[in-house]
Amino acid sequence: MTDTITDERIAVVGAGDMGHGFALHFTHCGKDVTLIDHRESNVDRARERIREVVAFHVEEGLTSMPPDEVVDRITFTTDRPAGVAEADLVLETVTEDLGVKQELFDDLAAETGEETLLTSNTSGLPITDIAAGAPEAAERIVGCHWWYPPYLLEPVEVIRGEETAEAAMARMERFVESVDREPVVVERDVPGFVWNRVQSAVVRECMHLAEEGVASIEDINTAIRDGYARRTAVIGPFETMDVAGLALFQTVAGDLFPHLSDADEPSRLFDEYLDRGRGGIEDGAGFFEYDRPASEVTRTRDEGLAALQRTIDDFREE
Ligand SMILES: NC(=O)c1ccc[n+]([C@@H]2O[C@H](COP(=O)([O-])OP(=O)(O)OC[C@H]3O[C@@H](n4cnc5c(N)ncnc54)[C@H](O)[C@@H]3O)[C@@H](O)[C@H]2O)c1
Q: What count of other Cβ atoms lies within 10 Å of the Cβ of residue 194?
């Protein structure tokens, strides 16, 4: 495959939490977008969610394109073969299930031209395993992992599968930059890539501390949100070690690592909360109680993220 193609016609397969966000973000960036799902009801729901999110973006001053215009520019369909036929790039963002993704890539390989880049937004399934579903197209299959909400967070992992062509990596990186995002190149196809490995390590330790009664869930949450994460929003972990001095972190690592959780199974706290019907905001309760609809909780989160982004952008421009 060649790496000279500019990826302008984008087909997004899967119109759920991530898919609707991709469709509106790529449209804001001037791409020609088709959003595909196998359920008509999910296509309709995505159209409404896009309207709501774009209205929020207009309020926040993140875009001046009205919701109706964004929706009008996107092609919504359940006809996948027609939806992907003319695409330069297909971004798969369906259910996190290896079998489902392998079958889909097998179909996509047959439904697209040899120059079409096939990409997966999997949270952690190895790209090589997904590509095993379509061996004849493996060189044009590449990982492209975003975080939620994709229209507010900037880094995007670009993951090299064992058979991914150099040209596919180059095109993927260029595409990510063309939609105002920052590529994080993952050279080895390890489970969880970078962000989800680190997030899982943090979650494991937080759950361990709570389980052991070292501190309350509220206090652990506050320590990470208002302390560790706030500083990490300005300088990352390697910069932090530079500032504090590597020798100090070496000493702390030597003292502390033997005491950290090395659990290889999810904490029992998950079952304890789930068994009580406390699965998170959709249930009105998880580790905390929620007396507002889930959509309002996520909106508040998004307002906070947008405010943080504006502050950091202003600070970096000074
Ligand atoms: N939600 C997140 O925070 C997040 C973050 C990063 C990555 N991801 C990854 O993104 C992918 C999608 O996650 P989501 O949260 O958007 O899921 P979701 O359940 O909200 O949406 C998935 C959509 O895919 C559709 N679908 C399933 N199989 C299909 C098929 N064969 N053809 C067409 N449509 C199909 C479903 O109808 C549904 O609308 C997963 O791989 C997930 O791991 C999710």
A: 15
Backbone angles phi, psi at 97, to 5 degrees: -145, 120
- For domain 195-317, give the CATH number: 1.10.1040.10
- Answer whether 38 contacts ligand 1 (Cβ < 6 A): yes
Q: Nearest Cα to 117, choosing from 152, 76, 87, 75?
A: 87
Integer-rounded Cα Rg, in Å, for the chain is 21
- 13 pairs with which residues across the strands? 36, 92
Query: What does DSSP assign to residue 145?
Result: E
* Alpha-carbon gap, residue 217 to 222, rounded angstroms: 9
As given in the structure block, the two tokens for residue 168 are 């596919």
Among 77, 79, 74, 55, which Cα is nearest to 65's? 55
Question: In this structure, are residues 51 and 23 in contact, taking their beta carbons and an 8 Å threshold?
Answer: no
The whole-angstrom distance between residue 225's C-alpha and the CA centroid of its chain comes to 19
Q: Tokens in use for 209?
A: 């501390």
pTM over 0.70, yes/no? yes
- Residue pLDDT, tens place only, 294-314: 999 999 999 999 999 889 989
* Residue among 94, 121, 186 whose CB has most ligand 1 atoms within 8 A, to mutate: 94
Give the residue with greater pLDDT, 1 vs 283: 283
Closest atom of ligand 1 to 101 CA is 31
β-strand partners of 75: 34
In CATH, which of 1.10.1040.50, 3.40.50.720, 3.40.50.1820, 3.40.50.10420 is domain 9-186? Answer: 3.40.50.720
Q: What residue's CA is closest to ligand 1, atom 18?
A: 16
